[in-house]
């Protein structure tokens, strides 16, 4: 989350360069100029003298909402004063400040400068009776163009500042998002490996405890009670492990990163792993092709963990038997693990917890594909991986 300190740091700028302060300043100048002009107009000439000023002020008011319309009315003020025989000093001064205001708020500087400059140029030239090339008229024109250009420049500078601020805020947000993504990926790796390793070992331990309990002599009541308590403790550990995994997998929108830490086992370790399941009481029919000399380490690790997870599910949810087929066809590994389902497990595949999610993540991380077939009497996992770690199409 972006902190308040970071936000304040990227927003820091000189307060007197903020456009809204300049815009409000033009209103203050306009009001002061109009008040000064009103006090200087002789009472006997009030009707004619106030006409141009009132039109100019009306244009200023309109320009706050309708900028082009208001500007057109403003530039009519100096011309009206000139037509009535009054000096248009205050109206054209207000027009110059209005040009600054409307360009500051978005109108194009060139057209605003030409419109206001033309009005001021002709009003000064006609009021003073000077020629077309008089310096005073050109000075008034230049002031109008400069005022419009200043408003446009300040607006562009404000846009530049806003862009810098937004980029800084985006950089802070991206930095925090990247940190959160890495944390979530690490949590996902921990959850996957914890489920693969700890869950597997606990399931095998539970199976051994069951075998030991069944083979105890009848007079070993104390030992049988102890084994029963131990199996209860194992089930409690499995339950608590599932709760931990749900917490670790809370952000499941994050996909597995390519730099994830992979466990060491590979294709060569699958036969020994199957023997461990057999020793725990699971009847396994296996048909394993010899591992090729060159296999991408990520693919070998994924294949091992998928077979391990499939057999763990067969041991926990199946009817006590499983079939494992591992074949290599050109550049692909085909893995099929099938186990029978007891009558009580029909339609209860949702009890398999996070094991299926872990298998899908393993296959996806190695570029492979995984299919699940949940039938009435059998549950099958089909996996396809490429030996070089490429994506299966």
SSE inventory with pairings:
Elements lengths: L3 H8 L7 H22 L5 H18 L3 H17 L5 H16 L4 H20 L6 H80 L6 H28 L21 H10 L3 E6 L8 H21 L3 E9 L2 E9 L14 H11 L3 E6 L3 E9 L7
Parallel strand pairs: 1-2
Antiparallel strand pairs: 2-3, 3-5, 4-5
Helix pairs in contact: 1-7, 2-3, 2-5, 3-4, 3-5, 4-5, 4-6, 5-6, 5-7, 6-7, 7-8, 7-10, 9-10, 10-11
Describe the 3D structure:
The chain is α+β, with helices and mostly antiparallel strands. It has 11 helices and 5 strands, in the order H-H-H-H-H-H-H-H-H-E-H-E-E-H-E-E. The protein has helices at residues 4-11, 19-40, 46-63, 67-83, 89-104, 109-128, 135-214, 221-248, 270-279, 297-317, 355-365, and strands spanning 283-288, 321-329, 332-340, 369-374, 378-386. It has a 5-stranded mixed sheet, covered by helices on one side. Strand 4 and strand 5 (378-386) form a beta hairpin. Helix 2 packs antiparallel against helix 5 (89-104) and helix 4 (67-83) packs parallel to helix 6. The two termini are 39 Å apart. The model is unreliable at 252-263 and 345-351 (pLDDT under 50).
Radius of gyration: 42 Å
Mean pLDDT: 77
What proportion strand? 5-15%
Outline: rod-shaped
Q: Mind describing the biggest β-sheet?
A: 5 strands, mixed
Strand order of the largest sheet: 1-2-3-5-4
Order of helices and strands: HHHHHHHHHEHEEHEE
C-alpha termini separation: 39 Å
Number of helices: 11
What's the count of strands?
5
Residue stretches low in confidence (pLDDT < 50, at least 5 long) are 252-263, 345-351
Secondary-structure class: alpha+beta
